[in-house]
């Protein structure tokens, strides 16, 4: 997909923003707090139907407005699309695609994807397991709509079972429902695990190549998928994984009742990231952490390109600031295929790669250059 332009009113601090984009590298430049990340958020939301940071729709509405209106124009599979979004404090979001009211953005998100890299993504390497699960989940949800609904169903079922275990001391009869919950968790978990295993293997292959180039051949990156311990080969078919997961839950029944919580399942999955055979979480330096996280994200973009037949839009929020010149050039070279949006506070190396420079000030893009 290529985004040709966007108009936004009342979306965060974008009060009356209007911008036209190039199909290549767009550099969004402005001092802190002017709306650079907000613009990336609008582009991401209009492509995927999800925000990468807001917990609610209302959070994206300007503090001083009752609603937000965003219109994005894009070229998708050789067709022009106009996606219009209305957010309101009073009601749920409304979406129109080419003037026709739609329940969601599936028509766009099934054929287009967005890959974002922001400073928080360093957590992929250094933090606990949840950002790494989110990395897999967000990519797989964009690729397979079925994965997204399985993931939601898994989350709800897990919540239900946790509640039962918690309340069982007072209401022991609730435990009669546990069999049903475990069956569902094993069935849904088997599908999540199957897809995650295949995705992790592909991610590892591609990211290690990128990381090798990025580090001038000095570093080997490896990503290993870790799931429920009784599973030797997580890429087995879901029908083969299901009985193993169910057995494990039965073995743990007494322990879960005693602990009053869920002890095993896909919700504990993790990716182990190794650099030169050592745990990156424990040993990677700041530069190595950044390089590894970027390699993983660029690999994600390559996977989307293979699956969808064209590159996803790439949103790079403030990635260049802490990289040395060689690494900046590497990133800019590597990403300059397909459409890219890069934010920065001042024009440095990126300007040489920019097809369009968009200065942003107080939520408005004022005039364009290049
Ligand atoms: N719902 C909202 N309504 C109005 N303003 C908001 C809303 N949410 C965030 N903002 C404000 O928008 C401004 C711009 O935020 P943004 O994160 O886009 O800045 P930025 O240009 O990326 O800055 P930095 O270089 O520091 O990352 C901030 O001052 C922020 O407080
Ligand atoms: Mg920002």
| Strand fraction | 15-25%
DSSP strand tally = 15
SS field, number of helical segments: 12
Large-scale geometry: globular
Largest sheet: 6 strands, antiparallel
The total number of structural domains is 2
Task: Give me the strand/helix succession.
Answer: EEEHEEEEHEHHHHEHHEEHHEHEHEE
- Bound ligands, each once: adenosine-5'-triphosphate, magnesium ion
* Unreliable residue stretches: none
Helix content: 40-55%
Which second-level CATH architecture of the largest domain applies?
Up-down Bundle
Which radius of gyration do the C-alpha atoms yield? Answer: 22 Å
Side-by-side strand order of the widest sheet: 2-1-4-5-6-7
Task: Identify the CATH homologous superfamily of the largest domain.
Answer: RecF/RecN/SMC, N-terminal domain
């Amino acid at each position: 997909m290529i985004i040709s332009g966007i108009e936004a009113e009342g979306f965060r601090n974008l009060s009356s923003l209007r911008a036209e984009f190039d199909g290549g590298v767009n550099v969004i430049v402005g001092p802190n707090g002017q709306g650079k990340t907000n613009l990336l958020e609008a582009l991401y939301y209009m492509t995927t139907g999800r925000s990468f940071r807001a917990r609610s729709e209302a959070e994206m509405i300007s503090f001083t407005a009752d609603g937000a209106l965003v219109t994005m124009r894009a070229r998708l599979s050789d067709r022009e699309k106009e996606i219009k979004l209305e957010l309101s404090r009073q009601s749920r979001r409304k979406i129109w695609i080419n003037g026709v009211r739609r329940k969601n953005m599936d028509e766009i998100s099934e054929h287009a994807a967005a890959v974002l890299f922001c400073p928080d993504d360093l957590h992929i390497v250094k933090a606990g397991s949840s950002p790494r699960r989110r990395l897999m989940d967000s990519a797989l949800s964009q690729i397979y709509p079925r994965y997204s609904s399985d993931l939601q169903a898994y989350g709800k079922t897990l919540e239900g079972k946790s509640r039962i275990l918690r309340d069982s001391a007072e209401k022991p009869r609730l435990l009669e429902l546990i069999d049903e919950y475990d069956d569902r968790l094993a069935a849904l978990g088997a599908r999540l695990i199957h897809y995650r295993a295949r995705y992790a293997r592909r991610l590892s292959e591609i990211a290690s190549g990128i990381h090798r180039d990025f580090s001038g051949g000095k570093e080997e990156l490896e990503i290993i998928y870790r799931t429920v311990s009784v599973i030797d080969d997580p890429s087995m078919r879901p029908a083969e994984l299901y009985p193993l997961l169910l057995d494990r839950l039965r073995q743990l029944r007494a322990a879960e009742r005693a602990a009053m919580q869920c002890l095993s399942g896909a919700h504990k999955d993790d990716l182990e990231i190794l650099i030169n055979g050592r745990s990156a979480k424990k040993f990677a330096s700041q530069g190595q952490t950044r390089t590894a996280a970027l390699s993983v994200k660029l690999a994600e973009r390559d996977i989307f390109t293979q699956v969808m037949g064209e590159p996803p839009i790439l949103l790079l929020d403030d990635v260049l600031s802490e990289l040395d010149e060689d690494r900046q050039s590497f990133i800019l070279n590597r990403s300059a295929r397909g459409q890219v949006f890069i934010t920065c506070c001042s024009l440095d190396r990126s300007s040489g790669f920019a097809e369009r420079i968009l200065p942003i000030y107080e939520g408005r893009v004022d005039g364009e250059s290049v």
